[in-house]
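Lecture 7 notes: from sequence to structure.

We start with a single chain of 403 residues. Read the sequence below before looking at the structure.
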Amino acid sequence: MTKERLEAYYGLPEEVKFCKRCVMSNQRPASTVEFKHTKDSKKVTLNFDAEGICDACRNAEQKEKTDWQKREDELLKLLDKYRKNDGSYDCLVPGSGGKDSAYQSHVLKYKYGMNPLTVTWPPILYTDYGYKNFRDWIDIGGFDNISFNRNGKVMKLLTKLSIENLLHPFQTFILGQKNLAPKIAAKYDIPLIFYGENEAEYGNPIADNANSLRDKSYYSFSHLDEIYLGGVSISELREKYKVPLSDLMSFLPADSQELERSKIEVHYLGYYLKWTPQEVYYYAVENTGFKARPFRTQGTYSKYNSIDDKIDDLHYYTTYIKFGIGRATYDASQEIRNMHITREEAVALVKRFDGEFPDRYFNEIMDYLEMSPDHFHALCDKFRSPHLWTKESGTWKLRHTVE
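Now the structure, written as tokens:
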């Protein structure tokens, strides 16, 4: 009997596989940003080797074999190359005052003697505790900061379009967050940008080297008509939605020629220093006053990851809808790789928390977007890929779950 072939949206693999070491599936996109959306688009997903182990787990193995003293020596040479003694900024750290940006900026300034400028593309809807962590980062940690408050009307429109066209509440935020740093660095003549955790840790093959500026797609563009925001072309945003180009510029990447002239280098601090999220959290608590969420994050069991934006929880819920991968899967896979929990424990956590609906801020988000809850839920059903989901007695269920 021939097995029914079910359509797979977004260029995802038709056969669902789970890593034999962590709990991540091969449905995980390798990039967190989608510039265009079609059901037939080709998407790079997490790779598995012949033994059924994912790229991210193999990378974790390499971390244990890495000569971290040698890597730190490389970092010192890099910092010495760009260190300034005239009081001007010699590196730039993008962030919101979460545990990662708090750690990387503090280490660069107080351990290695650099003078970082911190730059913030603010959350769409700050949580109270997220905003306090941001203020404590600056006030307790002791950093200069540029917080770029973009056009709120346009941000609201683009966030709504991102949900309607991509079911991706964070697409425009992620693009702005990535694109802002090189533009500010060029404006202030800062030659060095540091992000935190190396994206190769999560199976992004683009980011397996120190200098991520090689991936120009994050940072520059040559032709305006190649850029999509919220799944909509720039020309359509201007013509259909009447958004002037001047109101879109803050969301767009820097000009590629300007970047070439500025010779800015973009690096991941996690390439040079062994990066363990729990230890980064404790460091941020001790040195910048960072505080975890006062309650468990819906959709997972943790309290301190990505907690500054009210829309963050909804974003992870949409990854569950589109890829069958919820926030507990991300958290538990990372903790397996850092040898903090077993796979058996992770499977139990995923089964308990993945896909939990984030209702704490949901109505507030819908009010902000001027979107009805029923419309959002209808969009979720539209974006469920048939090869992942089936409906039984009126209830949606994943066809494949981790065991």
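The radius of gyration is 21 Å. Keep this in mind for problem set 3.
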